[in-house]
Automatic annotation (TrEMBL):
One of its GO terms (molecular function) is metal ion binding. This is DUF971 domain-containing protein. Keywords: Iron, Metal-binding. The keyword 4Fe-4S does not apply. Residues 12-96 form the Gamma-butyrobetaine hydroxylase-like N-terminal domain. InterPro entries: GBBH-like_N (IPR010376), GBBH-like_N_sf (IPR038492). The keyword ATP-binding does not apply. It comes from the Bacteria. It comes from Nitrosococcus wardiae.
Amino acid sequence: MMATQHPQPTEIKLRRNSRVLELCFDDGAHFTLPCEFLRVYSPSAEVRGHSPGQEILLIGKESVNIKDIEPVGNYAIKLRFDDGHDTGLYSWGYLYKLGQEQVPLWQQYLDRLQQAGYQRRQPGIKGSSTD
């Protein structure tokens, strides 16, 4: 029997209007992950590449939303995005890691966009994304 090495989700809630996925884990952790963040950090080979250094910088994903969440066994979910992307399994461990590392990963994404000369848009959102 394999021991669980990471927390398990107790609640997964999609908030389509605000384009975020809320996750609660059995260790008390709670994360609110924007759909754009989940899309640009998709675990799919299409986004991550097949080896380090092959990651693809996605642009224009500010308005992306999740259409559907499909459970995969007792270890992951498949997210179907409204831009047609639906590959890559988000394991509980990966979702937890994204939640824990959200701030530096988001900054890394913003820095990469800036280096690429892309000006990120805030679609229909007034104020900051931290409210």
